[in-house]
């Protein structure tokens, strides 16, 4: 019942014509802000009416069993609306804004300088797409991660799992990779000792290298054992340069903190590609 009430209240707030802070109805409001907004945040907290309860998110405790972004998502979902106090260049605020839009939490852009202004953000969420390359012998842990990405982090995942013997799979890989990256998506190579020896994985990587001119800026290598990226990249004559490499598994266990870093960096790379390199990594 509480969830239905929250949903109804969020829809009601979204339907209102809010032109000043006093127009905001009673409720809990997540305040999205960056470290550069300290003074503006102080001003906003002095200006908001008493019936508006601000919710400020702070860094959670280190917990390898719980992704760091999970408390952020939970906090946003539990609020009636979001007040965004930042320029679009702050990545963490942009990510929080995107999460709110996906959860259909009303988002209001607020400025307090030189004058107070407020306007509802009715834009669409970011197109979050990746192409996942991995070997079938790693299927169990990878499918668990992909399921988490799809269900909990709003990421659309394409892979070669649907291809069958007899399909013109080379062309299908090219189409799938191009479709993903043409929309600003990312190629994620899930690397293990097994996948480093996989002809399929190497062919997927080769196709991506040949099809995408700026592929190095669109590549994330996610390593979950002692494999080294050079084991697969050298065979396709590709220098990874400064491509992002994240190790997210230790022994038998998935390091959820590192996996969450992987997902956050996917967000970052897609934001940077779709909105240019003006974004900053300002934190809370």
Topology:
Blueprint: H1 2-15, E1 27-33, H2 38-47, E2 52-55, H3 69-77, E3 81-85, H4 91-102, E4 107-111, E5 117-120, E6 129-133, H5 139-152, E7 156-159, H6 169-182, E8 186-191, H7 199-211, E9 219-223, H8 230-233, E10 244-247, E11 249-250, E12 253-254, H9 256-275
Parallel strand pairs: 1-2, 1-3, 3-4, 6-7, 6-8, 8-9, 9-10
Antiparallel strand pairs: 4-5, 11-12
Notes on the structure:
By secondary structure, the protein is α/β, with parallel strands linked by helices. It folds into two domains: 2-120, Rossmann fold, CATH 3.40.50; 129-275, 3-Layer(aba) Sandwich (Rossmann fold). It has nine helices and twelve strands. The protein has helices at residues 2-15, 38-47, 69-77, 91-102, 139-152, 169-182, 199-211, 230-233, 256-275; strands at 27-33, 52-55, 81-85, 107-111, 117-120, 129-133, 156-159, 186-191, 219-223, 244-247, 249-250, 253-254. The strands form three sheets. Strands 2-1-3-4-5 form a five-stranded mixed β-sheet. Strands 7-6-8-9-10 form a five-stranded parallel β-sheet, with helices on both faces. Strand 1, helix 2 and strand 2 (52-55) form a beta-alpha-beta unit. The longest helix is centred in the C-terminal third of the chain and has 20 residues, at 256-275. The chain starts with a helix and ends in a 9-residue tail after the last helix. Residues 277-284 have low confidence and may be disordered.
């Amino acid at each position: 019942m509480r969830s239905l009430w929250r949903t109804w209240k969020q829809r009601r707030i979204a339907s209102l014509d809010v032109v000043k802070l006093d127009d905001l109805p009673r409720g809990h409001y997540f305040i999205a802000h960056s470290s550069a907004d300290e003074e503006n945040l102080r001003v906003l907290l002095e200006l908001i009416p008493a019936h508006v309860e601000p919710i400020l998110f702070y860094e959670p405790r280190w917990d390898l069993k719980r992704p760091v972004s999970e408390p952020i998502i939970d906090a946003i979902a539990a609020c009636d609306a979001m007040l965004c106090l930042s320029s679009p260049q702050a990545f963490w605020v942009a990510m929080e804004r995107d999460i709110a839009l996906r959860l259909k939490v009303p988002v209001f852009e607020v400025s307090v300088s030189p004058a107070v202004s407020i306007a509802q953000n009715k834009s669409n969420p970011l197109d979050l797409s990746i192409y996942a390359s991995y070997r079938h012998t790693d299927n169990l842990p990878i499918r668990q991660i992909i399921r988490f990405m799809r269900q909990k982090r709003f990421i659309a995942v394409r892979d070669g799992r649907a291809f069958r013997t007899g399909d013109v799979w080379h062309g299908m890989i090219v189409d799938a990779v191009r479709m993903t990256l043409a929309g600003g998506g990312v190629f994620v190579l899930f690397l293990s000792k097994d996948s480093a020896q996989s002809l399929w994985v190497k062919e997927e990587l080769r196709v991506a290298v040949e099809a995408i001119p700026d592929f190095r800026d669109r590549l994330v290598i996610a390593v979950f054992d002692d494999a080294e990226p050079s084991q697969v990249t050298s065979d396709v004559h590709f220098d990874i340069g400064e491509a992002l490499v994240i190790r997210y598994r230790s022994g038998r266990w998935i390091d959820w903190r590192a996996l969450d870093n992987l997902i956050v960096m996917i967000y970052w790379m897609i934001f940077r590609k779709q909105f240019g390199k003006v974004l900053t990594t300002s934190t809370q």
